[in-house]
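Run log // design_07
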């Protein structure tokens, strides 16, 4: 190359180097910046990261991935950590007071009568008072949603009577919830004895939606847990489409086993995510499952986020 040709080539080589440098910089920024939510927002629960992660670890990794919400951070001592990382507690619940007598090792303390059972008349005592305080706590801290569970079925009263009790319970709370801007979320639970209770009063979507319609408040809706609902009735996507106006919050979990929501289980969560987005849903979809033994919790959480980020 002669001198004249060399001088002509210098500007082009500089431009190319600059372009490569800018490209590398953009790539680095993209790798360090979590992807933005495209439609609905996503939340996470502590169990997704397993038992070895502290609340600080959970929050740090969640934000790196792109999560914006955190369900069931029940301990007020954890709230400053959520705030530090810009995470919103997206589902709050009240826990029963500690028992007067320590239960035997390996057993759970008995809950007060009617606790977490709004379909039972007994709930309209200590649990109702606790829920009033819980709504106030949500409002004071900017938590948007408050959990209600309906309880187990009973041989002493019918599903219809249970629905009447749940309506009465919610009617006593709805004015407070409306005033405070907090949404009460009744969670669907399976009735096959897999998980919390053996027989759930609210184990089919129609029962809970019926209660919500009768209460007739914009602050009383359903927490639609995909794992729980699929176990009982399937038809997840159509159920979401038909009832989205009554759904305030959504949980995910792989069927079977309630593990990660990938190709190892039967539900097509990518399709479910697209169906949710198509409804215009603007609430949170929160991951509530435990990583399978031997899996990498952070990797599975990241993959779950990507599957749902449509």
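design_07 sequence
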């Amino acid at each position: 190359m002669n001198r004249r040709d060399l001088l002509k080539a210098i500007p082009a080589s500089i431009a190319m180097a600059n372009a490569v440098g800018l490209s590398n910089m953009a790539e680095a920024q993209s790798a360090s910046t979590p992807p933005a939510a495209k439609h609905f927002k996503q939340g996470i629960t502590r169990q997704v990261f397993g038992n070895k992660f502290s609340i600080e670890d959970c929050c740090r990794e969640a934000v790196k991935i792109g999560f914006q919400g955190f369900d069931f951070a029940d301990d007020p001592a954890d709230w400053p950590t959520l705030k530090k990382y810009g995470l919103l507690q997206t589902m709050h619940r009240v826990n029963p007071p500690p028992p007067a007598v320590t239960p035997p090792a390996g057993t759970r303390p008995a809950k007060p009568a009617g606790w977490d059972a709004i379909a039972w008349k007994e709930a309209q005592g200590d649990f109702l008072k606790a829920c009033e305080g819980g709504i106030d706590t949500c409002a004071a801290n900017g938590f948007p949603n408050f959990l209600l569970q309906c309880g187990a079925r009973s041989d002493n009263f019918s599903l219809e009577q249970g629905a009447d009790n749940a309506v009465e319970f919610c009617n006593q709370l709805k004015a407070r919830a409306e005033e405070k801007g907090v949404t009460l979320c009744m969670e669907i639970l399976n009735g096959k004895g897999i998980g919390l209770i053996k027989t759930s009063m609210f184990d089919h979507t129609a029962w809970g939606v019926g209660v919500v319609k009768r209460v007739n408040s914009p602050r009383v809706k359903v927490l639609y847990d995909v794992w729980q609902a699929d176990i009982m009735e399937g038809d997840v996507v159509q159920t979401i489409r038909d009832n989205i106006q009554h759904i305030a919050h959504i949980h995910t979990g792989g069927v079977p086993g309630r593990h990660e929501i990938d190709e190892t289980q039967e539900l097509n969560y990518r399709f479910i995510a697209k169906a949710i987005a198509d409804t215009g849903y603007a609430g949170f979809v929160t991951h509530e499952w435990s990583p399978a033994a031997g899996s990498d919790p952070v990797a599975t959480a990241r993959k779950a986020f990507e599957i749902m980020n449509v």
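Confidence is low (pLDDT under 50) at residues 13-32.
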